[in-house]
Amino acid sequence: MVLISKYDYELLDLNNLHDSDESIEERFWSYGSLDFSDKGLEAFPADKIKHLEKLEHLDLSDNKLKEFPEALRVCKKLRSLNLKFSGITKIPEWIVEFEKLEYLNISTINIDDPRVFRSSRIKFPKNLKILNLRYCGINSIPPGVFALEKLEYLNLLENDIFRISSKIKNLKNLKTLKMRWEYVFFVSKRIGELKKMKSLRMHTHFRGKMPKFVYHMKHLKRLDASSADIRVIAPDIKNLINLEYLDLNRNYDLEDIPKEIGDLKNLRVLNLSVCGLETLPQSIHNLDNLEVLDLSHNHLTEVKEEDFEDMKSLRKLNLSNNKDKEAETNA
C-alpha cells in the first residue's frame, strides 16, 4: 500500500493570512499532506510506506503513539509535520535534522523543563516559518525559538508565559504572535523592532492600563484590544503612526480618550463602543482618513451627527444608545 501523498506541494504564501481570522494551520494543510490523523495509531506503520525518505508532509495528530517514531529520521525532505494530540510525550533532539521543515505543530506535547527557573532546552529546525507550541506546559519562550530567523507565525496560546525578553528582537520576520497576555508582567520594548508584525490581538485583562510595550510597536496597522479591561490610554498612543484599525470596544470603564488620538493620521476604523465615554477629544476631527467610527452605547449626550460633518472620509458613524440619543447614520 502506497501512502505517499499524490498532491503537488505548493509553498504557502503567508502574506495574506496574518490579518485573517482563518486558521493558518488549516490553510497550510489544504495544500495536501500524508494524513494519518485520528487513525488510533499506537505505532507508526513505516513498513507500509514506500520511499519514506521522500515524504514531505505528515500529519500524525490525534493518535496514541507515545514515542516519536525513529523511522522518521530518514525524512530529510519533510516540510510540514503535525503532532498535535499524537500521544507523543517527548521530542527527540534529532528533530533539528529536518532542515527543510517549515511547519511544525507540537501543540499538547509538554516540553517544559522540570527544573525550577529553566526554560525548555528544545531546539528546532532552522528554517521553520510556522511553529505551534499551544498547550506545551511552558512558562517562558524556549531559547531555541529565538534562533528561528525565518519564523513568521508563533502560537503560544494556553501557556503561562510571564516574560518576553529582549531576544524577541531576533525574530525579524515574525508577523503573527498568539499568546495569553494576562500572566505577562514584562515585555521588552525591543518587541517594537519587529517591523513585519502588523497585527496584535489582546482579548484579556491588563489591570486597567494599555501595556507599555504596545506603544513601542510603531509598525502596527491593526490593534484589537476589545474587552481588555482598559481604563487608561496614555498619550503615547501617538507613537502608533501606522495604525489603520483600532478596536477598543467593551472596555467598560474607559471614560477618557487622550487628545493624542488625533495624531493617528492613517486610522480608518475606530471602534469605541460600550466604553462609558462621556466626552470626546476635539482632536478626533483630525483623523482625515477615518472611514468608520463606532461610538454607540456610551454616555455622549452632547455629541450630534452634525459634529462630524467636517470628516470627509467618514462613511459610517454610529451614535446609537447614548443615553437618550437614538441616532445611527450611514454617511
Search tags:
331 residues, mainly beta, Leucine-rich repeat, LRR (right-handed beta-alpha superhelix), 2 domains, seven-stranded parallel beta sheet, seven-stranded mixed beta sheet, 2% helix, elongated, disordered N terminus, disordered C terminus
Structure description:
This protein is mainly β. The chain folds into 2 domains: 1-194, Leucine-rich repeat, LRR (right-handed beta-alpha superhelix), CATH 3.80.10.10; 198-331, Leucine-rich repeat, LRR (right-handed beta-alpha superhelix) (Alpha-Beta Horseshoe). It contains 1 helix and 18 strands. The chain has one helix at 24-29, and strands spanning 34-35, 57-59, 80-82, 103-105, 130-132, 153-155, 163-164, 176-178, 186-187, 199-201, 208-209, 222-224, 230-232, 245-247, 269-271, 292-294, 316-318, 328-329. It has a 7-stranded parallel sheet with strand order 1-2-3-4-5-6-8, with no helix packed on it. The longest helix is centred in the first third of the chain and has 6 residues, at 24-29. It is elongated and about 75 Å long. Mean pLDDT is 86; it is low at 1-15, 22-32 and 325-331.
The assigned structural class equals: mainly beta
Sum up the overall morphology in one term.
elongated
Distance from first to last alpha carbon: 63 Å
Uncertain regions spanning at least 5 consecutive residues: 1-15, 22-32, 325-331
**In total, how many beta strands?**
18
Q: Major sheet: size, sense and barrel closure?
A: 7 strands, parallel
Rounded to the nearest angstrom, the radius of gyration is: 24 Å
**Helicity range:** under 10%
Helix/strand order, N-terminal first: HEEEEEEEEEEEEEEEEEE
Count of separate structural domains: 2
The CATH topology of the largest domain turns out to be: Leucine-rich repeat, LRR (right-handed beta-alpha superhelix)
Identify the CATH architecture of the largest domain.
Answer: Alpha-Beta Horseshoe
Full CATH superfamily name of the largest domain: Ribonuclease Inhibitor
Share of residues in strands: 5-15%
Task: Just give the CATH class of the largest domain.
Answer: Alpha Beta
Total DSSP helices: 1
Query: What is the residue-averaged pLDDT?
Result: 86
Strand order of the largest sheet: 1-2-3-4-5-6-8
Task: Name the assembly state.
Answer: single chain
